[in-house]
């Protein structure tokens, strides 16, 4: 079953938001989903302790010593496994990246985030060198302006990354109140649709588009491995 992690040495890059958004969309559609919360702040563990009725399991017992076995165990139990990694480069992070089918590198549309994302790409490249095989990753923008209000710097950073040959997801998670509200209310986006939070339908549509693109990428990578 696919294992997807989110890595970026910059704290606050949107790792937890990106993973939780995709994971809850999949769980909402009926998939069995497990999240390994390896962030020391445990944001997803805290979210799961809330009133959400979504059937989504969270493990928060990951350590440098057990991360490999934990990934293998959860991958045998769920259709999708997500790993929310700490905001630093570490052996736990490297081991999770090596074991993952896809590493998402979340970033906002700023020069600082682009620099830190480059460090995350470097970590993936180092892990590739350690094991002698290619690892799959993609940069995933979040907190960007929705069309038609896309900022110039956001367009330029995305274009520069593509011109450098880096894989960049076309779908961005836009800057919307609903993504923050997920953590505040401890609900999924679909559950928020029953509340008074602004912009929830647009956030759900945006989240489903991102989830679909990630699924398509995973299918492409699976086909390439089978060829």
UniProtKB/TrEMBL annotation:
Extent of the signal sequence: none
Protein's recorded name: ParA family protein
């Amino acid at each position: 079953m696919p294992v997807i992690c989110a890595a970026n040495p910059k704290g606050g890059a949107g790792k937890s938001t990106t993973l939780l958004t995709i994971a809850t969309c999949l769980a909402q559609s009926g998939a069995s989903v497990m999240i390994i919360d390896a962030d020391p702040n445990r944001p997803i563990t805290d979210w799961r302790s809330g009133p959400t009725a979504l059937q989504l399991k969270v493990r928060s017992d990951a350590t440098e010593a057990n991360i490999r076995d934990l990934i293998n165990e959860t991958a045998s139990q769920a259709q999708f496994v997500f790993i929310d990694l700490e905001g630093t480069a570490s052996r736990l992070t490297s081991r999770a990246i090596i074991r993952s089918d896809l590493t998402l590198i979340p970033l906002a549309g700023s020069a600082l985030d682009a620099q830190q994302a480059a460090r995350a790409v470097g970590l993936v490249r180092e892990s590739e060198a350690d094991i002698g095989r290619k690892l799959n990753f993609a940069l995933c923008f979040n907190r960007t302006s929705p069309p038609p209000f896309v900022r110039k710097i956001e367009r330029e950073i995305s274009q520069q990354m593509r011109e450098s040959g880096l894989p960049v997801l076309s779908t961005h998670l836009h800057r919307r109140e609903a993504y923050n509200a997920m953590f505040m209310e401890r609900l999924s986006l679909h559950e928020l649709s029953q509340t008074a939070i602004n912009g929830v339908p647009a956030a759900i549509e945006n989240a489903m588009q991102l989830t679909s693109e990630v699924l398509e990428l995973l299918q492409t990578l699976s086909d390439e491995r089978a060829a």
